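<instruction>
Derive structure tokens from the sequence
<data>
Labelled lines for chain and fold:
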Amino acid sequence: MTESAPATLSDVLTQHAIDLPDGQIEQLDHYCRVLWEWNEKINLTRHTTYEKFVARDVIDSLALESFLDSGERVLDVGTGGGVPGIVLAIIRPDLHVTLTDSVAKKSRAVEDIVRQLGLDVPVFAGRAETLLETQQFETLVVRAVAPLPKLLTWFAPHWQAFHQLLVIKGPAWVEERGEARHRGLMNELQLRKIAEYPLHGTDSMSVILQIKQPPTE
């Protein structure tokens, strides 16, 4: 009895009914291999199989990209190992993606990953708030960085530098929204749940929250 060959990234994408061009699949596969090689030196991701990469990283990134207009300037806040920013840059080459992480060794690793992939994606080593003092973006994307009250406190002085905040959250988002409201952090902001999809391998749901300032009269 012969053992079946290990699943390829293409196989796993097909299992999840995700259809991407061959060139993008090759780039994503290259990204996985470089990321996992770096992961042996420093902790960048827990998603070290194609199944985990697709079920969490690719699905989250695809959920986000449908809310990004062509040509948008996107800042990935606390990128870690490059998700969702690098995945977005691969599947949406029309976007202008910048990555930032306040942990210097992670920024250096991601800078090397971007270089090896040949992507035109700047990496900023420092806090996103610092970058927002000098640069403008349409959208900030955030995944697994901090509870909503912390995020809203950090970015409160910087709304003139971006249009919307897209945050991926799990079930705790309702309690986090309640705390943010209690602390008065939502008084001048609009929050909408714009997407909801299963959190793979659990009975819970992931959501995408859109936070923005209301339009001026």
Observations:
- The first strand starts at residue 73 and ends at 77.
- The longest helix spans residues 22-39.
